[in-house]
Design a protein that fits this description.
Length: 316
C-alpha cells in the first residue's frame, strides 16, 4: 500500500519549481535531483502512539515526487536508518543500553560524525574495520554487515526495495576491508530513494516505528531549535517561529536533506531532497529555493482547498 496519495496539483507545482530552478542557471538539475514532498491536514507528530500501524498508514497524506524512486547515495541521511536500527536492536535486547551508545547515536545524528557512525555500525553488525580480510573470513563478515538490510526487508515496505544500508560514512574514503566491501567502483555503496527516506522519516516523526517512546527519543535528536540558523537548508529563512525536525548532509559531491515542518497557520509538510552531482552540491541557494517554493505551494493549495485543524493542532 502506498504511504501517500499522489496529488496532481502538488505534482504540477513541484514540476514547475524544478523547471524554474533549471532556468535560473542550473541546466540539467532535474536529472540529478530527487524530491519527495508530503502535505498533511494536521500535525503527525506522535500520531502513531494513538493508532494502530494500519490506521496510521491509512491517514490522509497528499504528496508528489520528482525522481522519487531513483536510488542515490544518501550520504549522512543513512544515519537515520542506523538510528532506527539501534532502537530496534535495543528493544530486542540485541544491544546493551549504555551512555556510550547514546553518545554515539547523538553525535551521529546531530553532527554527522563518521567516528560515531563507525561505532554504531560495528555494534549493529558485530563487525569491525581493519585490514583486508583473508578470503575464507570474508563471507561471514559480509553476512553480518547485511543485518540492517535484513531488518529493512522485514518492514515489508515496497519503497525499500533495492535500498542498501551496510556501509559506514567516511570523512574521506574507506580503506582495507571497508574498501573491499564497497567495491572498486562503489558498486556496493549505500543507496536510497527519496521515497524510502520520506517514509522512514514520516514513521519516526509519527511515532510508528519500533515503539512510541523510541520514536520520541529519536525525535528529540532530530528536533531543531527554531531560533538556530540553517544556512543552505530547505528550512533557511523558515525556521523562525516554526517547529522543525530535520537531518541533512552537504558533502563534496552530494547534498541531501530530510525535513518535517510545522509553520503556524500552514499545512504541515515533509520534504526529502537529494542531489547527486558535484556541480550542485555546493549550491548554497538551491535547497532554500526548493524549501521556500514548496512552502509557498502549500499556502497556495491551502487557499484553494482549505486544510482544517492545522491552527488548533499547532497551538496545543
Amino acid at each position: 500500500m502506498a504511504f501517500y496519495s499522489p496529488d496532481p496539483a502538488m505534482q504540477q507545482l513541484l514540476g514547475d519549481l524544478v523547471l524554474d530552478c533549471e532556468r535560473q542557471g542550473r541546466s540539467g538539475l532535474g536529472r540529478v535531483l530527487s524530491i519527495t514532498w508530503l502535505r498533511f491536514p494536521e500535525s503527525i507528530v506522535g500520531r502513531g502512539g494513538r493508532l494502530t500501524p494500519e490506521a496510521f498508514w491509512g491517514l490522509p497524506v497528499a504528496g508528489a515526487s520528482w525522481g522519487g524512486e531513483r536510488l542515490r547515495d544518501p550520504g549522512s541521511l543513512v544515519h537515520l536508518v542506523y538510528l532506527v536500527a539501534c532502537e530496534a536492536w535495543l528493544q530486542r535486547q540485541w544491544l546493551q543500553e549504555s551512555p556510550e551508545l547514546r553518545r554515539a547515536m547523538a553525535a551521529m545524528v546531530r553532527h554527522g560524525c563518521p567516528d560515531a557512525t563507525s561505532l554504531v555500525v560495528d555494534l549493529l553488525s558485530g563487525t569491525t574495520s581493519g585490514p583486508s580480510l583473508p578470503v575464507p573470513r570474508q563471507p561471514m563478515w559480509i553476512r553480518q554487515r547485511q543485518l540492517v538490510n535484513d531488518w529493512m526487508i522485514q518492514l515489508g515496505w515496497p519503497e525499500l526495495q533495492g535500498c542498501n544500508a551496510c556501509q559506514k560514512t567516511w570523512a574521506q574514503a574507506p580503506y582495507g576491508r571497508e574498501a573491499d566491501f564497497t567495491g572498486p567502483n562503489g558498486e556496493n555503496r549505500n543507496r536510497f530513494s527519496s521515497e524510502a527516506l520520506a517514509r522512514l522519516f514520516l514513521a519516526v516523526i509519527g511515532g510508528v516505528l519500533v515503539s512510541p517512546p523510541a520514536c520520541g527519543r529519536m525525535g528529540e535528536l532530530l528536533a531543531h531549535p527554531s531560533e538556530a540558523p540553517l544556512k543552505g537548508s530547505l528550512a533557511e529563512n523558515l525556521a523562525i517561529g516554526c517547529r522543525l525536525w530535520h537531518s541533512r548532509d552537504f558533502g563534496a559531491r552530494t547534498r541531501q536533506e530530510a525535513a518535517y515542518l510545522e509553520i503556524h497557520g500552514e499545512a504541515p509538510m515533509l520534504l526529502v531532497a537529494m542531489v547527486e552531482s558535484g556541480a550542485w552540491a555546493h549550491d548554497q541557494h538551491l535547497f532554500p529555493a526548493i524549501g521556500h517554493g514548496l512552502v509557498h505551494g502549500c499556502r497556495v493549495l491551502s487557499q484553494q482547498t482549505p486544510v482544517t485543524g492545522v491552527d488548533q493542532t499547532l497551538n496545543r
